[in-house]
Write a structure and sequence with these properties.
The protein is α+β, with helices and mostly antiparallel strands and 153 residues long. It has six helices and five strands. The termini are far apart.
Amino acid sequence: MIGNLTLISTDTNLIDGIVYKVKIGTKYYIGSTKMKLTIRANKHNNQIKNGSKSKFHTECINNNIFKVKCEEIYRGINYKDVENKLIIESLNDPNCLNMKAVISNKERRREQNNKKTDCKLCGKVMMKKNMNRHLRQIHNVSKFDFICEKVKV
């Protein structure tokens, strides 16, 4: 049980992904994978041995733990949603080693495109996703031409 959510599903027909927990003393990390848990644990172990700087791997290194075991807490097609819910519920827990909730690539791209940026030619501020159209329509320049000009200078 994590927070007010108790999860354990072993329905083998829904093997889209697995949510797992790694314990380091009283601290823990929540992750997910589509791999076998032993393979994912080996990847974590290699990252620890190679000196990864993530909060989770650093905690392992500081406690001289170089072999972790992934404990399955959920298996199913909506594993990313479950992982996010567990992480969000645990973010205020000082024993939780997760830095933030996981966002999908689509959400990350949307966040990046909605960031404000300024045109290097005229200084107008706009959303990043509108920059190519602005360069084409206002300055009659493609983004590629603009990048090439910067390289030549």
